[in-house]
Amino acid sequence: MQVTIEKVVLLRFASRYRRLLRVLWICAVFTVVVGSLLPASSSALKALDALRLNDKVLHFSAYAALAFLPALHESRRALVTAAMLLVVLGIALEYGQLVSFGRSFEYGDMGADAAGVVFGMATALAIRASVP
Q1: What mean pLDDT is reported for the chain?
Q2: Exposure of 23 by Cβ count < 10 A (0-12 exposed, 13-18 middle, 19+ buried)?
Q3: 101: left (phi over 0), alpha (psi -120 to 50) or beta
Q4: pLDDT per position as a tens digit, 62-104
Q5: What does the pLDDT read at residue 30?
Q6: Which structural domain range is residue 103 located in?
Q7: Cα–chain-centroid distance for residue 28?
Q8: Per-residue DSSP letters for 115-128?
């Protein structure tokens, strides 16, 4: 992989602003949890539906972002833990949708979540590996 100035800047930012990235990650996790458990009739989900994005794309993207942020700066051990917890979170939230009004349980959503975790971590780790 070719080293670009953007990758170097991204990794320097990540190492310098580790605390900020952790706070952003916690906010992102909170947003995913709330968004996953909101009733289908909520204004937030209606606005999201208006975008006409595929549900699996939304799941994949959300979990890719959740995995990408810590993979930029955390230790390998922390990343393994984070990856496992994110997959468990996706499964738990899918089961939580069983009791959320107007929401449905889908195994495909769990698969999209797990694929997003793998993609987000792999992308960030590839960036980390390419910068000396």
Answers
A1: 89
A2: exposed
A3: beta
A4: 999 999 999 988 888 999 999 999 999 999 999 999 998 888 8
A5: 97
A6: 5-130
A7: 8
A8: HHHHHHHHHHHHHH
pLDDT band at 108 (very low <50, low <70, confident <90, very high): very high
Give the pLDDT confidence of 10-22 residue by residue, as tens digits.
Answer: 777 776 788 888 8
Cα distance between residue 130 and residue 132, in whole Å: 6
Size of the chain, expressed as the number of residues it contains? 132
Q: Where are the alpha helices (DSSP H) in the chain?
A: 5-16, 18-37, 43-50, 55-71, 76-96, 107-130
Find the helix packing angle between 55-71 and 76-96, rounded to 10°: 150
Q: What is the pLDDT of residues 34-61, one digit of tens each?
A: 999 989 888 988 888 888 888 899 999 9
Amino acid, res. 79: L
How far apart are the C-alpha atoms of 28 and 21, rounded to whole Å? 10
Helices 76-96 and 107-130: angle between axes, nearest 10 degrees: 160
Domain count, the chain: 1
Q: What is the distance between the alpha carbons of residues 87 and 104, in angstroms, rounded to a whole number?
A: 18
